[in-house]
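G., before I forget:
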Amino acid sequence: MSLAHRIIPCLDTDGERVVKGVHFEGLRDAGDPVELAARYNVEGADELVVLDIAAARDNRPTFLETIRRVAEQLAIPLTAGGGIRSLDSARAVVRAGADKVTINTAAVERPALLSELSAEFGAQAVVLAIDAKREGAYWQVRVRGGREATSLSAEDWARRGVEMGAGEILLTSVDRDGTQSGFDIDLTAAISKAVSVPVIASGGAKLPTHFLEVFTRGAADAALAASIFHDQVQSIRALKEYLRASHVEVRLPC
Amino acid sequence: MKVTLIDYGAGNVPSVERAFRRLGAETVTTNSAGNISAARCLVLPGVGHCSALVNALDKHSLRRPILQAIQRGVPFLGICLGLQTLYESSEEAPELPGFGILFGKVTRLPETVKLPHMGWNTLRVNRASRLLDAIASESYFYFAHSFAAPAAGEETSAVCEHGRAFAAVVERGNLCAVQFHPEKSGDAGAQVLRNFLKVAA
């Protein structure tokens, strides 16, 4: 009896449609979030993440409606984020049907937001998203979709975020994101060691061996990927069967 | 079957409601003492900090009607915090008493494991369980919590383990509760809710 490693598909949306492309560049349509959510719910996804990557634009009501429609489809947990900058905007996302909220840039700008969210929803509902990029000997925290540097080290920021009330870290390697060359194992292992909360690894997944490595050497609790699932490069069930055969505990729905 | 969901503002009430409706049950959400006293089947969902739940129950004077309903034999299902509040107290908010229907204290899971206990885990079934009827023993359920009830009570029909064993399913007559989130636990979770509806019928 032990906790299963989670496989989490991520829907990057423009508020309404799932889009593909790294950090706004070369965006193209990748499907209907409601259809994809229904498919992943059946295929054995352990959770679903829905992000509004165009949150800067004025499309909030559309995104909230998307969360509502996606939540309707799910019998698994839903995390939503992108553009959450205040307790009020987090409340709207939770009321729309999200079980957890994820925040990134807003937490760097005002870490107290993590405490406010944690006090209201509980730490289990607060996911701190960290975009990290290798800079010489350390990993630097990036904000605004990975484009802007900060003075924070990812390890220090992860520890601080957990002290402030985050119950989970969604860790994206800016170097690996979109490359399909595998997760950043060293980064994931370093953050997983630095904090006492679960870590979701993200960025670079393609092959089943990438997932195996991030769960074993990377000590990740969960792994997230987007386009390889949307494009059916990888089926969640086949991936989980591979992991189970490799002695990694996963949930295989009956 | 009409299911009355006690809505004190917890985040998961809509998803619990959706899960029951998918099974064909009629649902009503309420925070009124009158509705709770009149209910034929009660569900107390909960997620987050236990003081939020207990304070909200006290604010709306719901403690007594809930307790009386359980004592009258009204079928009751507690989910997550809705399980934890059945015990005498919780380390998470030591100053606030629980319902005290079940003996023991809710405590924090050990620091030797990652907390919150978040994700899918399996159960160890102690004894015949109506809530777990027709569910394969290797089924996974979704948990999201850092505090947990003692495993030892007679009413504990299944335990889970994360750092230590804790009560995952408790059943005593009309009183049912689960630490995991059946509304987020896929088909196995839906079967738990279906089983509860059968108990309540």
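Chain A has one domain: 6-245. Chain A has a mean pLDDT of 93.

More on Monday.
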